[in-house]
Amino acid sequence: MSATDLDLTRPAASRAAVMWRRFRRNRAAVLGLVIFAAVALAALLAGVITPGDPLRLAGQPLTPPLTVAASPFGTDQLGRDILAGILHGARISLLIGVVATVISIAIGILIGAVAGYFGGWIDDVLMRITEAFQTIPSFVLLLTLVAIFGSSLTSIVIGIGVVSWTAPARMVRAEFMTLRQREFVDAARNLGVGNASIIFREILPNALPPVIVFASVVMATSILMESALAFLGLGDANFASWGNMIGQGRAVLREAAFCTVIPGVAILLTVLSFSLMGEGLNDALNPRQKK
Amino acid sequence: MSATPILQIEDLRISLPAGADRPYALEHLNLTVNAGEIVCLVGESGSGKSLAANAVMRLLPEPRVHVSAGRILLDGEDVCSRSEAEMRKLRGDRMAMIFQEPMTALNPQKTVGWQIDEVLRLHTDLDRKGRKARVLEILADVHIPDPASACNAYPHQISGGQRQRVMIAMALVMNPRLIIADEPTTALDVTTQKQILRLIKEMQAKHGTGILFITHDFGVVAEIADRIVVLRLGELVESGPADQILNRPQHPYTRALIAAVPALTPPPHKPLSDAPVVLRASNLRKSFAARGGLLSGRRNAVVAVKDLSFALRRGETLGVVGESGSGKTTVSRIVTRLLESDSGEVMIHDRDLIRASRADLRSLRKDIQMVFQDPMASLNPRKRVVDLIAQGPIVHGVPKAEAHARARELLELVELSPAAADRYPHEFSGGQRQRIGIARAIAMQPRVIVADEPVSALDVSVQAQVLRLLADLRDRLDLSLLFVTHDLRVAAQLCDRIIVMQKGEIVEAGPTAEVFAAPEHSYTQALLSSIPGRDWQPPQLSVA
């Protein structure tokens, strides 16, 4: 044993490489990633594969799938091309999923972090507010918000974000309550680092992994919520969203089930891909949890 | 009887799962425990000593970690070939284990009596009355005051030392042939440790049990071992009678280990009485008010520190020693104002830290820095080493580039490779992490460093290096150290003066050499006489 501690362990692989290796070990997660990539690709290439407005008339109404080359997935009762609707709808669904998730996680982190870090009466007040939100079923609250603010895409996205921040907030709070007792927080305080800096630069990066995993769940439920809204006829009719397609196909469910089944499968696959990826992310980010 | 030893381990090999840092946790381990003998298995962390114990009990996390070669003979019968059902009969009956942390080893939901009774229920045909009598008898045997009421107590209602006594009672109740004790006193205070060690010896003499005692502490070894086996990274380095290993070790590793044990000789008295006082604390008080619930009302406040005063001179090391609950950690948190004190003042160069405004406090923090106990928890795992060290200066307005350059210089000062700068804390060993913690503290160019148990989480050999580094930096940078520790050997190594704390009060203070030579207060005397292995003077060894 030498007096100088110059001997270091071999350089570890970069963080991203290690995470990818852990993620890859979960086959279902890789499948989820593949499905997600397909959905993202569909959203990107929607304008190339099916150019033009997806809501325009594209052929005979209620053409069954695989009969006309121009519309392989068939058309709905207004003669709109279902393939175009699926591809363009992917954009809307992903947009809603991502933006609503960002909104809900951002609110959740802010409230959870402040409550968990300061504790005391601040925690009490913030948690009572959170509970107030939690006591109302989130979909009912969303319906109310949409009824008040109208069913434009913007208000739907914000509405979904606003009704789904409570779970991330509680999660972040719990993480903060354990992390703030760790010595590195004392060490930072001892260096004269301010509260805001401790919350966001010291503790938050350590609290993020479970939140990121949870974000995939929030993303899946956001897409489902939007679909449910559209199904009830409260979606934004100016956009081809999957929920709208199901909602309108409901009228012809008996004679042309494909009008609802195809967008239904699209939603199923997308939500499934998020759930599978969430599990993989959990393996990648919280390796100790599974041992 | 004496022909077959109680425990015989022959050529034992334990395999680790693929991808571990070495293929075998243990290799070619040979070991015998005879009746009425205490064999100490000594090694630093990662030496495989605990796995050896678990292998004997067949408690390895199989199949990932398993015995791949060799034999373990209990009274001449091979343990490895037993079925799980047969093993259950053996455990608790003919061999028993005492764990390190009695709080977690005992079931918090069951009373002490129930848990001892359970062993009897499993292994004997005694009826209720018979079992109850036996439980009371064994509790009395391990000197638990008032066994009848202890029986009905839950583990959290009795003290740590008593919990360990209960564990020992549980292990002894069937009069096993072999007891495996895995660091049974590591979690205890010195005075309690002494009592427990004495109890183990007494029980062993009474029942003629063979004991396999696992520890990392050579003081404890010197106290109780008949024979010693030294392990290093899964390999047996040296074994032999206690006297031979302790006083005439042969293998260089054993020699290095023993040389690293801090001797109980305080440093020569430094003439410091004319050095200026850097930090003066007076009349510090702190009590913790337990927050009551909505309906339960306020509970009584616990006084952690009462009326504490001391002065720290430039270049001096002041040791704060005491057992757990003495308030020594609270002191370290108050003088750095990580905890608000109830009253009193901490003067650093005529400025009061306790009553400083936010802005003043920020600038004062530069003068007093802290090194923490747990080098893993005190470094943010998401930050690179260079960012960790440069963080303080950057917060205080040093340009980033300059702070980073200085951080790299500091790495050299704490004897780390400059390549360490861009790594994350988890890539370092415990000792290396503590060096990073020290570099972070001195990056602020403080006058005072408060070190809260900075070496108690480290192996002995690393401990010695870190202590040497601290002493060296103190002398080179003219720092003052406030050194909080429970380990009197460590205090003796480094401290010029010590204050001994008990229940939030200073019971004795003075130059280390004087306090060690002629302790005045009865508590100090008790502490000093409890240092394990105090009669054993580690031999002066030249380490090759």
Summarize the structure.
Chain A is mostly helical. Chain A is 70% helix and 0% strand. The model of chain A is unreliable at 1-7 (pLDDT under 50).
SSE layout and pairings?
The complex is a heterodimer of chains A (291) and B (544).
Chain A: H1 15-25, H2 27-49, H3 82-118, H4 120-135, H5 138-149, H6 153-163, H7 166-179, H8 183-190, H9 195-231, H10 242-249, H11 258-285
Chain B: E1 7-15, E2 24-33, E3 38-42, H1 49-56, E4 66-74, E5 77-78, H2 84-90, E6 95-98, H3 102-105, H4 112-123, H5 128-141, H6 147-151, H7 160-172, E7 178-182, H8 190-207, E8 210-215, H9 218-224, E9 227-232, E10 235-241, H10 242-247, H11 252-260, E11 277-288, E12 302-313, E13 317-321, H12 328-335, E14 343-348, E15 351-352, H13 358-365, E16 368-371, H14 385-395, H15 400-413, H16 430-443, E17 448-452, H17 460-477, E18 480-485, H18 488-494, E19 497-502, E20 505-511, H19 512-517, H20 522-530
Parallel strand pairs in B: 3-8, 3-9, 6-7, 7-8, 13-18, 13-19, 16-17, 17-18
Antiparallel strand pairs in B: 1-2, 1-4, 4-5, 9-10, 11-12, 11-14, 14-15, 19-20
What does this structure look like?
- Chain B: It is found in: Cell inner membrane.
- Chain B: One of its GO terms (cellular component) is plasma membrane.
- Chain B: Belongs to the ABC transporter superfamily.
- Chain B: It holds the Pfam family ABC_tran.
- The complex is a heterodimer of chains A (291) and B (544).
- Chain A is elongated.
- Chain A is an all-alpha fold and 291 residues long.
- Residues 1-7 of chain A have low confidence and may be disordered.
- Chain A has helices at 15-25, 27-49, 82-118, 120-135, 138-149, 153-163, 166-179, 183-190, 195-231, 242-249, 258-285.
- Chain B folds into 2 domains: 7-260, P-loop containing nucleotide triphosphate hydrolases (Rossmann fold, 3-Layer(aba) Sandwich), CATH 3.40.50.300; 279-290 and 301-530, Rossmann fold.
- In chain B, the strands form 4 sheets. A 6-stranded mixed beta sheet of chain B has the order 6-7-8-3-9-10, with helices on both faces. A 6-stranded mixed beta sheet of chain B has the order 16-17-18-13-19-20, sandwiched between helices.
- In chain B, strand 17 (448-452), helix 17 and strand 18 form a beta-alpha-beta unit.
- In chain B, helix 4 (112-123) packs across helix 5, helix 7 packs parallel to helix 8 and helix 11 crosses helix 17.
- Chain A binds chain B through residues 1, 3-6, 8-9, 11-12, 182-184, 186-193, 197, 202, 205-206, and chain B through 256, 333, 336, 338, 361-363, 365-366, 369-370, 372-374, 377-382, 391-392, 395-396, 415-417, 419-420, 423-424, 427-429, 431-432, 435, 437, 440, 444, 461, 465, 468.
